[in-house]
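Hi! If you just cloned this repository, the fastest way to understand the data is to look at a raw example. We've pasted two of them here, unedited. The first protein comes first, obviously.
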Amino acid sequence: MTKGSPPTLHNTQFLSCSLLAEDTINTVMDRLILGCGYSLLVLDDCDLGDQNVLRLIRNLANDVTDRPDVKSSGVIIILTTSDGGKIPNKLVAERIRDRGQISGISAEDVNSALRREDPKHVSFREQVAAPKFLFRSVPFLPLSSESVAQCAQRAARDQGATLSSAQLGAVMEMQQFAVIKNVKIANTGCKQIASRIDIVLAGASGTRSPNPEL
């Protein structure tokens, strides 16, 4: 690995936080710590106050460096949560009302607001803080209608498909938007887009041209 290049991941684990239990945590811990090289753990849709989540992250931070049988070079953890999600929405709404656009809001603006207004984020940061653990919060701003359309086209390409204008329109109609000073902002992100594309593509494949002989 050259200096400055990202680590090569040898082991990836994806886990919904709703499935976290004692046996699951132990299995994930062993796979990450006893695997060689760098590992990636994705914890999806987590409650920042969930003690199972906190215990898993704290144990990983300690065991990667302290367990005598460890083989891992390190673990990268990506945790997604909707906790505090109304705070960036509020910032975006205020920016649109003031300037008529979203641009100009930085990640630090959102993080500062989360630290001020969301006790769960403050508590989570304090409980996982450790010298051997590097923590970085990456907030996602609400998406404009154009961003949602780009997300849909990208998700369709990932499935080996291309959305027609009509199909893209059908996907967009399933998405809920709030309108602030004529700017449309998605109430949710891209997470549900893939399932909506499946519905649209399934409907298209189930449509048959009329038989002219009948």
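Ok, and the second one:
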Amino acid sequence: MLHYAEDHEEVAYQHAHSLVSFFTIDLDIPEALQLTRDIVTESANDIRDIEGEEVASRIDVALRRLIDRVEAELDG
């Protein structure tokens, strides 16, 4: 699924937005965004162990960019 973020950015963005929105049921927006970023960090660490540094870095950047887009939309 994480590789999907690289190849299908708009759909991955919708998933990221849904994830943050789901977390806002119990958290405020900054906390929901931080939790989502923490999940990305842990996922990238797992990918690093399995697929190597280069793949993990690419996916980490792609996912963080998506979360930044969600944050910008929620702020604006």
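That's it. A detail worth noticing about the second one: The helical segments are 2-7, 9-23, 29-51, 53-75.
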